[in-house]
């Protein structure tokens, strides 16, 4: 199986004045093509630091990190930006889409920073990405005309548009209600079935059940890495919820 | 990274914040507009003064009697009565750089025409005086050599005289007027000249043959002044030197003695007034430049605030793969675009404002291409200069912190 992310003995030390914080204390893990990993852990467990490093937003203090065969440690700031642009798609808890900017322009954003994509391709790819998250009819909508779930779907489309090696989702359902969370999980599962590799940080156990495997962080270390036994299917869960709703009425 | 994409990004960002963009631009607009208007006003007044001075005559040189100095005490200029007609004659003979010359005698007199009267200055001059002073006879004719020889009682009058004695639009040619009870026949009317640079009415004048005024009215050999014209503009200083030399000789002045006359050329006058209006222009331009500078600081101010306000946006851009250089260029483009467009609108408003000043203020204006280019160029430089710091600040943001920024 093709390994997309390979991390060996990763450490990250923050120095704040006299305080030395060991955010990561020797993390080793491999994430393969087609994986759907949920990273769990309490706040302060190091999962966000881990996420920032494998998302190429930050460099580790020591350890090895290969992303799609590239040794990330040897790269400078601009090369990291290039890597983020071509190989990673981000989805954030607070959506982080540009205000007063239409859905399609938001999705186009990563391609604007990629000089190899021409105007026509950019528009087409952005439209395809929006279509794949079910927003083909909302391409010209502004963020304030979209619901939270729809805004998160725009963010997912933006993460998809550059055909990334891995989609990094940092608490993607943290700001959404259960129903909308399941919608988002449905999209993630469908993308995963089509071959996308997804790494998702979450602290909600029921959301983690939609992933293929769960990695648990504690005090800057991985304490467990297990396959999900009874994996939930978002489409079915969604149906169940709808039925429950009809019964109560 | 393709620059056209960054242009697109910057354009989208600016057009999504139209009010902020406009307010940022306002400082530059006002700055550029005021620089252009101020320079136009300054330049206009300079040209106005130059025009007035040239209306005094073509390359004219004035020779005035000097001040009497008795035992080291100077009396007022012109108090010595030592300029004679013969001085003018000898200058005409000996000074090669002098083209025309005319002695001038003058006297303020009461003029009476039938029931109207008026007080004005009557000048006795040669007929060449009209050429030296750039005077044109609009109606009738000037006086001739024979008028001069016979001391004929004829005169040429200015428009103000015509207006006050005969009423505007009436033809006074052939009419008789009494100057100090001596009847003069009007043979010509001067073209209107308007106010001089010094505020005097150049049309309130009567000109008569030199001999007539000297012999019939004043009975004196002393001249008020001698007016001459140099062969060309370049030769004015040479003419002055020649005249000084000839007059010193004729007045038998020793080397240690001061001149007992004053020679003043037209370029002296235009230099004095030129430097006055230059000071005025510099003053106005520096006030306007300050407002342009303030406009630049306004750009920096708003760009800095907008870097903080847009921290999250910058974080998003960095996360999706913008390099710090991309962010830097985007912010620079925004700053330059603001100052560029602001400069353009400023030029437009400055030209309109200058036009309004000319229209309603009655002030002459002159918009020079160089002032437009200069202020436009300056505003673009200001955009780069004051846009750099905020842009660098934006580019150096840490993406993780920027994304977390609330």
Explain this structure to me?
The complex is a heterodimer of chains A (249) and B (406). With 249 residues, chain A is an alpha/beta fold. In chain A, α3 crosses α4, α4 (119-132) crosses α5 and α5 packs parallel to α6 (178-193). In chain A, 37% of the residues lie in helices and 28% in strands. Chain A has a single domain, classed as P-loop containing nucleotide triphosphate hydrolases (Rossmann fold), CATH 3.40.50.300. The mean pLDDT of chain A is 91. Chain A has a 6-stranded mixed beta sheet, sandwiched between helices. In chain A, strands 2-1-4-5 form a 4-stranded antiparallel beta sheet, with helices on one face. Chain A has helices spanning 47-54, 77-87, 103-112, 119-132, 148-160, 178-193, 205-208, 234-248; strands at 3-16, 19-32, 36-41, 62-67, 70-71, 88-91, 166-170, 197-201, 213-218, 221-227. Chain A has 8 helices and 10 strands. In chain B, β4 and β5 form a beta hairpin. In chain B, α2 (18-54) packs antiparallel against α12. In chain B, the strands form 2 sheets. Chain B has a 6-stranded mixed β-barrel with strand order 4-5-10-7-9-8, surrounded by 4 helices. In chain B, 44% of the residues are buried. Chain B has helices at 3-15, 18-54, 85-94, 129-132, 145-149, 159-166, 210-218, 236-250, 266-309, 311-319, 324-361, 369-395, 399-404, and strands at residues 60-65, 69-70, 73-74, 98-113, 116-125, 137-140, 154-157, 176-179, 182-190, 205-209, 225-230, 261-265. Chain B folds into 2 domains: 3-52 and 272-404, no CATH class; 81-259, no CATH class. Chain B has 406 residues and is an alpha+beta fold. The mean pLDDT of chain B is 85.
């Amino acid at each position: 199986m093709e390994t997309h992310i390979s991390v060996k003995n990763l450490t990250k030390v923050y120095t704040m004045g006299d305080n030395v914080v060991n955010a990561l204390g020797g993390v080793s893990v491999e994430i393969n093509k087609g994986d759907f990993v949920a990273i769990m852990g309490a706040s302060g467990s190091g999962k966000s630091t881990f996420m920032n490093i494998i998302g190429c937003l930050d460099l580790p203090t020591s350890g090895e990190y290969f992303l799609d065969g590239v040794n990330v440690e040897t790269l400078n700031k601009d090369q990291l930006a290039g890597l983020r642009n071509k190989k990673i798609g981000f989805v954030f808890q607070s959506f982080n889409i540009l205000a007063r900017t239409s859905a399609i322009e938001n999705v186009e954003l990563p391609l604007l920073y990629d000089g190899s994509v021409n105007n026509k391709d950019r528009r087409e790819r952005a439209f395809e990405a929006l279509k794949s998250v079910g927003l083909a009819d909302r391409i010209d909508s502004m963020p304030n005309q979209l619901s939270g779930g729809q805004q998160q779907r725009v963010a997912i489309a933006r993460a998809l548009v550059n055909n990334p090696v891995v989609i990094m989702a940092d608490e993607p359902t943290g700001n959404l209600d259960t129903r909308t969370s399941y919608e988002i999980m449905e999209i993630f599962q469908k993308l995963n079935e089509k071959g996308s590799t997804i790494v998702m940080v979450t602290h909600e156990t029921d959301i983690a059940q939609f992933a293929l495997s769960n990695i648990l962080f504690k005090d800057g270390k991985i304490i467990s890495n297990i396959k999900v036994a009874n994996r939930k299917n978002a489409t079915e869960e969604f149906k169940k919820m709808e039925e429950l709703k009809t019964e109560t009425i | 990274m393709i620059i056209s994409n960054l242009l697109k990004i910057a354009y989208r960002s600016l057009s999504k914040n139209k009010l902020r963009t406009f307010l940022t631009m306002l400082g530059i607009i006002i700055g550029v507009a005021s620089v252009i208007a101020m320079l136009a006003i300054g330049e206009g007044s300079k040209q106005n003064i130059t025009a007035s001075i040239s209306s005094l005559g073509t390359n004219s040189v004035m020779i005035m009697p000097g001040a009497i100095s008795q035992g080291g005490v100077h009396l007022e200029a012109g108090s010595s009565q030592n300029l004679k007609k013969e001085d003018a004659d000898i200058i005409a003979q000996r000074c090669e750089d002098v083209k025309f010359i005319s002695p001038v005698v003058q006297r303020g007199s009461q003029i009476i025409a039938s029931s109207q009267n008026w007080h004005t200055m009557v000048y006795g001059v040669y007929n060449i005086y009209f050429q030296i002073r750039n005077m044109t006879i609009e109606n009738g004719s000037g006086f001739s050599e024979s008028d001069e020889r016979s001391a004929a009682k004829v005169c040429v009058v200015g428009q103000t005289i015509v207006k006050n004695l005969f009423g505007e639009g009436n033809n006074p040619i052939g009419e008789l007027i009494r100057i100090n009870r001596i009847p003069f026949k009007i043979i010509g009317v001067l073209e209107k000249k308007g106010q001089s640079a010094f505020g005097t009415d150049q049309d309130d004048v009567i000109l008569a043959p030199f001999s007539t005024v000297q012999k019939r009215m004043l009975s004196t050999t002393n001249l008020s002044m001698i007016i001459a014209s140099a062969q060309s503009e370049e030769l004015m200083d040479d003419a002055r030197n020649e005249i000084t030399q000839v007059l010193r000789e004729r007045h038998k002045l020793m080397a240690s003695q001061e001149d007992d006359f004053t020679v003043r050329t037209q370029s002296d006058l235009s230099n004095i007034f030129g430097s006055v209006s230059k000071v005025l222009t510099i003053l106005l331009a520096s006030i306007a430049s300050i407002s342009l500078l303030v406009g630049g600081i306004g750009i920096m101010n708003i760009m800095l605030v907008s870097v903080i306000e847009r921290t999250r946006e910058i974080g998003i851009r960095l996360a999706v793969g913008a390099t710090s250089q991309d962010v830097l260029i985007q912010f620079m483009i925004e700053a330059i675009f603001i100052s560029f467009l602001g400069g353009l609108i400023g030029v437009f408003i400055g030209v309109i404002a200058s036009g309004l000043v000319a229209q309603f203020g009655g002030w002459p204006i002159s918009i020079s291409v160089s002032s437009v280019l200069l202020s436009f160029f300056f505003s673009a430089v200001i955009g780069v200069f004051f846009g750099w710091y905020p842009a660098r600040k934006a580019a150096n943001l840490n993406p993780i912190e920027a994304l977390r920024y609330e």
